[in-house]
Amino acid sequence: MNNFSSRKAAGKTSVVVSVVLLVVLVGGGLLMWGAGRGWKAFVSSGMVSDLSEYQATINASALEPRAKSRLLQQIDIVRERAREKPIGFWRWIGYTESFRAVLDDKVITADEAAILERELSRLEREFE
Q1: Domain limits for position 116
Q2: Which residues contact 91 (CB under 8 A, 6 or more apart)?
Q3: What count of other Cβ atoms lies within 10 Å of the Cβ of residue 11?
Q4: Considering its fold, how many domains does the chain have in total?
Q5: What is the pTM of this model?
Q6: How far is CA 72 from CA 12, 41, 96, 118, in A?
Q7: Assigned domain for 86 exists
Q8: Which of 21, 29, 66, 108 has its CA 20 to 30 A from that of 37?
């Protein structure tokens, strides 16, 4: 009888351990999923904010109206795509550095506008 009750206790212990492991695995999976979604939202928010800042700088510039309009339209397209599905954080940092190199002095020449158009076109392709 004693042998039977020790087997019964061992069976209960293995069931409890199995349930605890299952709860930990499911909880960990949900935690990782939530963290991934949170990170994606963080990167998306940063991209949208930066693009809005670049758009304001371009809008305030003395750039020729047609060139300004093209750049602003490209930024709108990229910003909408960034809201839906942002690119990787480190790739975005690379784009940010190139945009800031052109926009930091708040003066945009025709050559710099061409650079911005190329960078924005390249960025648009990242979302395809």
Answers
A1: 38-126
A2: 126
A3: 10
A4: 1
A5: 0.70
A6: 66, 23, 16, 13
A7: yes
A8: 21
